[in-house]
């Protein structure tokens, strides 16, 4: 079963007046993984789709959704998958790709069949991002050893973290999609601080590896008009092109970032000095 929900885009002046509940309704994606379901959120921000596939008792086929008005989900789209659970398999037009914990798969436009499967005795958790695509690029697995690793932050600022670029154009050819995973070192809590915006691209964050009972305060909004959303493990949040996206946890955690839009230039960011935030 493939379910989907539509989310509209917003003007920043309207978002200033949102209540806590409205902010959560529009930007938070609270539940991605339900037994034997694929759950998708179709956002009007660059038509980016955020989703989860959680095969427990059966294999799950990625079905087309109404919003696409396309025969197959990937007729005019590309897909990125990162497995945050135990070993699993993604079958792409008859070919099996084994994804271990924290491994990624890029699936190109034009693919007809994508099926998410367990490996015997294992429970994979597949996190999905998809963006419109104009060109077919080959499907490619990005394992841990293929990642481009960047060490960021400093213990002194509680933001020491390891950024793994997975689906980026130095590793795999894509039309719009960029995805990666940032791991906070134990004792460090701040991600993406100093924060940034990139009007050229929207972004979605998915938080995981957060200890039971802990929480992350995710910060969004224009740099001089910020709001926060408290998030739990395995929740995602949409970041408009005009918004910062940073967070502080009550412990360390890992998160997946995914982007789409005008360019594929990871470094294209407008940084904000922390003491200029409001
Ligand atoms: O545009 C890039 C994204 O916001 C993230 O890659 C930032 C991030 O993972 C981090 O600083 O920890
Ligand atoms: Zn960003």
Automatic annotation (TrEMBL):
EC number(s) recorded for this UniProt protein: 5.3.1.17
InterPro entries (UniProt xref): KduI, KduI/IolB_isomerase, KduI_N, RmlC-like_jellyroll, RmlC_Cupin_sf
GO molecular-function terms, A-Z: 4-deoxy-L-threo-5-hexosulose-uronate ketol-isomerase activity
This protein's pathway: Glycan metabolism; pectin degradation; 2-dehydro-3-deoxy-D-gluconate from pectin: step 4/5
Cofactor(s) it depends on: Zn(2+)
Reaction it catalyzes: 5-dehydro-4-deoxy-D-glucuronate = 3-deoxy-D-glycero-2,5-hexodiulosonate
Residues holding Zn(2+): 196, 198, 203, 245
Pfam families, sorted: KduI (PF04962)
Keywords: Isomerase, Metal-binding, Zinc
Function as written in the Swiss-Prot or TrEMBL entry: Catalyzes the isomerization of 5-dehydro-4-deoxy-D-glucuronate to 3-deoxy-D-glycero-2,5-hexodiulosonate.
Record's protein name: 4-deoxy-L-threo-5-hexosulose-uronate ketol-isomerase
Name of the gene this protein is made from: kduI
